[in-house]
Description:
Blueprint: E1 6-16, E2 23-33, E3 40-41, H1 43-49, H2 55-67, E4 73-74, H3 78-85, H4 89-101, E5 105-108, E6 111-114, E7 119-120, H5 127-188, H6 208-217, H7 226-229
Antiparallel strand pairs: 1-2, 3-7, 4-6, 5-6
Helix pairs in contact: 2-3, 2-4, 3-4
Amino acid sequence: xxxxxxxxxxxxxxxxxxxxxxxxxxxxxxxxxxxxxxxxxxxxxxxxxxxxxxxxxxxxxxxxxxxxxxxxxxxxxxxxxxxxxxxxxxxxxxxxxxxxxxxxxxxxxxxxxxxxxxxxxxxxxxxxxxxxxxxxxxxxxxxxxxxxxxxxxxxxxxxxxxxxxxxxxxxxxxxxxxxxxxxxxxxxxxxxxxxxxxxxxxxxxxxxxxxxxxxxxxxxxxxxxxxxxx
Length: 230
């Protein structure tokens, strides 16, 4: 306890000496000690909010308590907290996440605010003000988290819709592919082979080439056919 916590309240009194009847003035000073630098710990809530806190994490808790302002604020970065608590940055992150989950503290602006229902650093008269500030900060955090959750859910729904449409497009493309393959397969199917140089036959069973050869043989020595002789 620091000496500057002592507060004096001097009072003057007019008194009369019972033996002599003489009147004179006395000054009486009453000293009281303030509670500004005391840490008021509410043990039931303190134990409840430190559920699962291990040795390394508890070092972070103690440093946070030592770093609180009279309004229960902690205006330090995670890196500064890690250095002050002599622990790792990751331990600080995990510890603060747990402390926030169990209502030991919450984020407020760029800093942290410790729950005055668990630990309080300042004067008892200002605790009500800090408690209102803490509840408001918790409410704002819940609103921000809800908005962030809604935003992520909307993004997830959009992705699912896009995926559904893409799957439908893939299904249509596969069907088009099957149709094209079917058409190409039918066009490539071999038909009956055609014989080369097939000559048409007349009523005698001879081809035009055979008939022409016969006519040549019927020519006489003058080079005329039978028809020409006639």
